[in-house]
Amino acid sequence: MRAPAEPVIDTSPSPGDEVKTTTCYMCACRCGIKVWLKDGQIRYLQGNPEHPVNRGVLCAKGSAGIMQHYSPARLDKPLLRVGERGSGEFREISWDEALDLATSWLKPIRERNPDELAFFTGRDQSQALTGWWAQQFGTVNYAAHGGFCSVNMAAGGLYTLGGSFWEFGEPDWEHSQYLMLWGVAEDHDSNPIKLGLGQLKARGAKIVAVNPVRSGYGAIADEWIGIRPGTDGLFAFALIHELLKADRIDLDYLVRYTNAHWLVVRNPGGADDGLFARDAQGRALCWDRDASASKNTPPQPSPSLREKEGAQALADGIGISPAVVGEYVLEDGRRTVPAFHLLAERYLDPQYSPDAVSERCGIPADTIRRIARELAEAAFDRSFSLPIAWTDAWGREHADMPGRPVSMHAMRGISAHSNGFHTCRALHLLQLLLGAVDTPGSFRYQPPFPKPIPPPNRPGKSRQANGVLDAAPLGFVHGPEDLVVDAQGQPRRIDHAFSWAYPLSAHGMMHTVIRNAWAGDPYRIDTLMMFMANMSWNSAMNTTQTIGWLTDKGADGEYRIPRIIYADAYASEMVAYADLVLPDTTYLERFDAISLLDRPISDADGAADAIRHPVLDPAKQREGRDVRGFQSVLIELGARVGLPGLLNEDGSAKYNDYADYIVRHERAPGVGLLAGWRGERGELEAKGQPNPEQLQRYIDNGGFWRSEVPEHARYFKMANRGYLDWAQRMGFMGHADPVVLQLYSETMQKFRLAAQGHGAQQPPAEHRERVATYFDPLPIWYEPFEGAQIDDIDARYPLSAVTQRPMFMYHAWGSQNAWLRQITTRNYLYLHPDTGARYGIGEEDWITVTSHQGTITVQARFAGNVQPDTVWTWNAIGKRRGAWRLSKDAPEGSKGFLLNHLISDITPKGDYANADPVTGQAAWFDLRVRIAKADAAAESAATSEPQFAPLAMGSADNRPLRYGAGFRENSRKNSNRKDP
């Protein structure tokens, strides 16, 4: 009798018949992914275990990239508006017609006045190209999304540490024993943070989350501190107060690596007051307590100044014993005090004691004192050393690397306030006092950081003979002389960035461009060109007003913003307001450079960059679809317009497309967008002539390149000779000088002096008080503008309202994704149960939420994970009906909502943008509201308000989505086939 045949079971089925590696684009994390294909379609997305960013981990967003690529909202062809703006009435046109039309608009602008083009880009991750293109065009009116996203974080760090939180640094996940997360949501850098938190939890390190809302990372923290929005800086100052009072600070670190001992001139009313004392060669001075006093030292000019032991010396000298407190008279008679003296004077003031700040922050004073003790205990009582020899920038050899196992990470929750710049600086000050910047166990720089302070690149403001700007439009202001203003001190940029109103606006001010272009302030523009920026909806400070500005017409019947060119891959809300729409590819159909010149993907132990490359041919994805990557379109447009950097000497186009530009473009000799496999044969890294095979080498290596920082150079990067020399060889720094960390900012003091009437460049009268107040060289805290001004006018807005980014979606494009929508299809306003009881609101009641700007109607839910004086919701879930080709009855449109309807783009007083006065960052989280139960009509309607007329953006097939069913059907057919 024959034994029954055993079925053949494939226990390791392949996800597809082909696999390609590239870089994810479902958030800013930029993880490596494997794209499994079957029959030319995506079968499966998997994390790439070889990739340095995520090491194989992939989140819900990344996995759902399949549905992003196959989204029904994809645009198919260039569109030309035929109806009114906002109607969604377009006709499809060819690329030749679209590019001819765009060229006919742009070429006369460049010949006439390049500043009449405002070119503003969203989360494109290709600013190394777009900023350079704007420079070639000659317009000062270029900005990227960082102005409403993270410029406080970047500027606060770069003007203090030469690096910053966000994407320029990370906690020492391997050695930290105490981590504080400040205002961290779950969007940026999410997979590396999750991996790192897992390491900390496994090791028993303590995690403290400071946030008004407890979600995501905060939910797994050992302690949640539900702080009142906008008071993080005040909390930090109370911690600093306690550390100073207890003398639990690292003075040795401060003197070695910061300007704590640099002498500051005390000359009230003088042009040098508050500046650093320097010698004739401009070198900073300190007071060496062990040196012999010079015979030329004049008598002390005041009996209050007793004779001091020691003498002035160079602050970067070796073998000195610098004073950090006291008042000293220099050889030339100038009176001075060390920077640390000013710091101690300020923060030891009782106004910063835990008892003084407790009620405002919403944190018990005893908790503040305990956290300060825990920080000190972790930093000093649990200190350790790594047995790694290294040499510092002054040639001194060290046998080991002493550590401070306290680390911090911060994000938008602290920066998106009108006091955010100073709050970011306050956190860095706290880190420095603990000796916890780039030491083992603390916050660590990621190459190419640290940079000199401030970074050397200043914003462009004048045009050369060929019309090209003298520098890129964005950069770092070193003093009033770098502002982009006219002879009267008025702004020259349409967004008012780098003006006396917002001097250090390093990323520009994207959130102000539409209002200012509509108002003609400071002048009329001709064309607004935008890429991947949903400015008519969730990226608008105030959605209703922005729609009005985009559609408003002058007395002549013409639009006040004459022309709008918009590029996007999807039928977003903003598409409806464009005159010309350029359809972009999905991220799986194009080349991208994740460049060290832009937003790097390095970690603290290695420099890294990456590419995206077409794993699918856009021409074969849907019948009739004809789309092009915006970067390639921009390069062709530049050549058509005649931009010098995009033409050969004979006038022909210099680059075929973006891929060709990535390989052959050099920002400086030997420096291009990608650092890997440079040189004729790919034998060089970081610097070397272009390699024609460079992109293929990236593709063969999983889409990325990484270079290890030498082991002896991985800590103390700001003053480690090994790192500084390595960074110079790699092209990250123009010199190998140490970076002195800035407790006290002379850049800020230069602006204050200008406001006090000193120097060749001074602010107009209307800005003097503002500049003098907010350009304090030491971090300060002040009530966020909306709260302060509302309380002066109307105290009936007692609650703060903030948005959180969910871990499973990213900005607007996440909630059009079919798989991610199954997680959340609408949002609620979440409030603490005690808050609901206080206002007579029940679970799932419809309520009104009112700010000084307007009112929305939404549905409420109770959540114990929120500070009781704060309400919150998920960001960007709400959609405008008809957008993204969602069903007209989709809950995102009928019940979803935005807080943006309540946010004003100007302060309640109407004097400035609703933004930080130092950097111009949008103050999204300053919003103050009141809530009340809605009336019976609203309850019965069960629809969020306001509602707008649906957009005519087309509709998707309403049949149930069964992606993958075809693969299964084919698999069944194949398995049932009989052998011949």
UniProtKB/TrEMBL annotation:
* Region span, Disordered: 940-980
Biased composition regions of type Basic and acidic residues, renumbered to the chain: 969-980
- Domain of life the protein comes from: Bacteria
Principal localisation: other
Q: Which cofactor does it need?
A: [4Fe-4S] cluster
Report the locations given in the UniProt record. Answer: Cell envelope
Is the keyword Lipid metabolism in the record? no
**Pfam families (alphabetical):** Molybdop_Fe4S4 (PF04879), Molybdopterin (PF00384), Molydop_binding (PF01568)
Question: Which family does the record claim for this protein?
Answer: Belongs to the prokaryotic molybdopterin-containing oxidoreductase family.
State the name under which the record lists this protein. Answer: Anaerobic selenocysteine-containing dehydrogenase
